[in-house]
Amino acid sequence: MKGRVMMRSYNTRKSYLPDKFSVTHLFLAIQIVIFLLMTLNGGSTNVLTLILFGAKFNPAIAQGEWWRLIAPMFIHIGFTHILVNSITLYYLGTQMESLYGSLRFALIYLLSGLMGNLMSFAFNDSISAGASTSLFGLFAAAIVLGRQFPYNLGIQQMARSFTMLIFLNFFFGFFSAAVDNFGHLGGALGGALAAVFIAMPRTSKSQNGQRLLFLIIYFVNAIFFAYTGFMRAGFALY
């Protein structure tokens, strides 16, 4: 992923707060509203409430409720869960949105969450939810930026910070049965791939071949995870 043009038009010293419409704030608002509605309808830790509001539930996905691959990234289990993820989304999201722009940022966020939920559907039978699939995708996208712009000190500093953070989260996650590690891994994979094929604004056209390749890789992985999850969940139903 080296060899991209230098990112001359981005001033990494400026405020990370978007000047206009903020997708980060929209995503924050959505997950907070959903959390409040869940609290009023049985509580966010209630299994039936989680399923009702769209948590990742493999049997339902296998029966055609594919929207459960998107909804979980806006659903949280308990106050601590939404608090930590909301703080992370605010600080990480404003940085990444200011670099990519609102539309590109939204696509990376959603595609990361989708891939994370697909991988969780394929290999994790538990009910799960949370924005962390998308957040791991943003971490991975920041690391990709560090590879793409090796001479931009601001990008390099951000990439190093998030590289350490993502490895620490993976390390501690594997020691907790409550953490959806496959969701995190899939989110990181989706974010890394999406960061390449979506690309920064004004990316050189010479990179279009690489972008197409990574787009194809994304879809191949998504289809593989969907097929694996369907087969495993389908066998479990009968």
Automatic annotation (TrEMBL):
Gene Ontology molecular function: any one: serine-type endopeptidase activity
Residues spanning the membrane: 21-40, 73-93, 105-123, 129-146, 158-176, 182-200, 212-230
GO biological process, one term: proteolysis
Peptidase S54 rhomboid domain mapped to chain residues: 64-198
Predominant cellular place of this UniProt entry's protein: membrane
Family stated for the protein in its record: Belongs to the peptidase S54 family.
GO cellular-component term (any): membrane
Subcellular location: Membrane
InterPro entries, A to Z: Peptidase_S54_rhomboid_dom, Rhomboid-like_sf, Rhomboid_protease_S54
Source species, domain of life: Bacteria
Coiled-coil regions, chain positions: none
Keyword vocabulary terms for this entry: Hydrolase, Membrane, Protease, Transmembrane, Transmembrane helix
Pfam families named in the record: Rhomboid
Topology in the lipid bilayer: Multi-pass membrane protein
Protein name: Rhomboid protease GluP
